[in-house]
Write a structure and sequence with these properties.
The protein has 202 residues and is an alpha+beta fold. The protein folds into 2 domains: 75 residues, Glutaredoxin (3-Layer(aba) Sandwich); 116 residues, Glutathione S-transferase Yfyf (Class Pi), Chain A, domain 2, CATH 1.20.1050.10. It contains 7 helices and 4 strands. The chain has a 4-stranded mixed β-sheet, with helices on one face. β3 and β4 form a beta hairpin. The two termini are 24 Å apart.
Length: 202
């Protein structure tokens, strides 16, 4: 049985959990990271030298990096969530890479500033700047979805990019990172309602 290492409150672990549920793949999960420790042990570092989560063990094959894990699972199980047609697959890859290169760094400062920093130690000027940067990223996706009409990122068919960005959108639309002046993004809201209605996202 596939084994997933990682804590359930990690956004990157949530991606993999969602994907496994979409695929109906049986798995076991072991807590690792932050309060659970494990990631700095020699055994874990032998699997994942980055010392981060998630990591999967699928038989004799070990893999880390959440977006790569989603691609692997989709290919192994021949899932329509990772399109076979080159342009559709490239577009899904593009949005997954965008999460890593653009959205993630912008969103991280907002999350750390509000969630991981005690109220008395928060730099609200930095938090507001982070909220602006993250909002600009989400506005890009909002415009893309509006152009194509949704309901998913690239149109009528859901892909693994919707899972990846859906996990980050849970933060954006959640109360934990809400600050005054966040933009209203109708297409993004409609998209999130569509992906958020799926059982694995609940």
């Amino acid at each position: 049985m596939l084994k997933l290492w990682g804590r359930v409150n990690s956004v990157n672990v949530k991606k993999v959990l969602w994907m496994l549920e979409e695929l109906g793949v049986a798995y076991e999960r072991a807590d690792a990271g932050m309060e659970h420790g494990v990631v700095n042990t020699p055994a874990y570092r032998a699997m994942n030298p980055n010392g981060r989560v998630p990591t999967i063990e699928d038989g004799s094959f070990t893999l880390y990096e959440s977006n790569s894990i989603l691609r692997y699972l989709a290919m192994k199980h021949a899932s329509v969530l990772y399109p076979a047609e080159p342009a559709a697959r490239a577009s899904a890859d593009r949005w997954m890479d965008w999460q890593l290169s653009t959205l993630g760094p912008a969103e991280r400062n907002l999350f750390w500033g509000l969630v991981r920093t005690p109220p008395e130690k928060r730099d609200m000027a930095a938090v507001m700047a982070a909220a602006k940067a993250a909002g600009e990223c989400w506005a890009m996706l909002d415009a893309h979805i509006a152009k194509h009409g949704g309901p998913f990122i690239d149109g009528a068919a859901m892909t693994i990019a919707d899972i990846v960005l859906g996990c980050y959108a849970r933060r954006w639309f959640g109360e934990e990172v809400r600050v005054e002046g966040m933009p209203v993004l109708p297409a993004l809201s409609a998209w999130y309602a569509a992906v958020g209605a799926r059982p694995p996202c609940r």
